[in-house]
């Protein structure tokens, strides 16, 4: 596992400058390449579209008037990360976790992330979320890495590709890492249960349905609402959840 602070580019141009190269040029090709190579961990053939990105960052755009700490898990090529970097304010912290080394390299070189406000702290961990020091030490100001708890977690993990035990572990970890009243967003693609059974056979279809039932129970306990995003490839449903306790 490697964790590093990504420093703002001291010579960065204004964010609307047309002189900067587009950060999106190779995203789709890189994403497709990695999806074909490691679909189990990537879980899609293309990055999330703008409508899905907007649904996932809702807790950050409707936030308290104080600095917040955000954890993004499974950042991929950075479509959500860039949106977060644009809306975060001075004093905010963004911790990005991405296990795929090629995606992590893409994030390190991203011009939009480099051009963020210099007072927005950005940390990148190239590992799985369950490998974070906070995952074993427990959240808090004295935990290794000093991350403390997070006000918002945005998860891009493809839960239905995982075993139910791992999904249960990750969801429990999210609850531990969230501050009381903190909010979590994640998404799932529509129509995947039938497709998984037809393509992968009954055993994987049964595993997929078990994960869906687990997610439904989690959403019934902590859910605040959901939004169906039809203008995405494929269409998806974004979920908003809140951890127990009053939000400071």
Shape: globular
Q: What distance separates the N and C termini?
A: 32 Å
Total separate domains: 1
What is the CA-atom radius of gyration, in angstroms? 18 Å
**Helical content class:** 25-40%
Report the CATH C-level class: Alpha Beta
Fold blueprint:
Elements: E1 2-5, H1 27-37, H2 39-42, H3 50-56, H4 58-61, E2 69-73, H5 79-87, E3 93-97, H6 101-108, H7 111-114, E4 121-126, H8 133-137, E5 150-155, H9 164-177, E6 178-189, H10 192-200, H11 202-222, E7 223-229, E8 236-242
Parallel strand pairs: 2-3, 2-5, 3-4, 5-6
Antiparallel strand pairs: 1-4, 6-8, 7-8
Summarize the structure.
This protein has 248 residues and is an alpha/beta fold. It is 39% helix and 21% strand.
């Amino acid at each position: 596992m490697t964790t590093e602070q990504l420093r703002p580019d001291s010579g960065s141009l204004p964010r609307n400058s047309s002189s900067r190269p587009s950060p999106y040029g190779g995203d789709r090709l890189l994403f497709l390449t990695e999806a074909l190579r490691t679909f189990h961990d990537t879980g899609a053939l293309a990055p999330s579209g703008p409508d899905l990105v907007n649904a996932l960052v809702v807790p950050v755009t409707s936030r308290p008037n104080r600095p917040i700490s955000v954890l993004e898990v499974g950042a991929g090529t950075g479509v959500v990360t860039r949106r977060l970097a644009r809306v975060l304010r001075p004093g905010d912290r963004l911790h990005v976790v991405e296990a795929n080394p090629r995606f992590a390299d893409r994030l390190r070189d991203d011009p939009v992330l480099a051009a963020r406000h210099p007072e927005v702290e950005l940390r990148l961990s190239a590992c799985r979320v369950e490998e974070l020091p906070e995952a074993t030490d427990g959240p808090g100001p004295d935990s290794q890495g000093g991350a403390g708890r997070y006000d918002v977690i945005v998860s891009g993990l493809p839960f239905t590709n995982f075993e139910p035990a791992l999904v249960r572990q990750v969801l429990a970890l999210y609850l531990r890492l969230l501050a009381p009243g903190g909010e979590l967003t994640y998404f799932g693609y529509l129509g995947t249960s039938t497709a998984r059974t037809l393509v992968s056979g009954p055993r994987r279809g049964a595993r997929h349905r078990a994960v869906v039932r687990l997610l439904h129970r989690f959403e019934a306990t902590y859910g605040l609402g959901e939004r169906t995003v039809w203008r995405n490839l494929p269409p998806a449903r974004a979920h908003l959840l809140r951890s127990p306790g009053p939000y400071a």
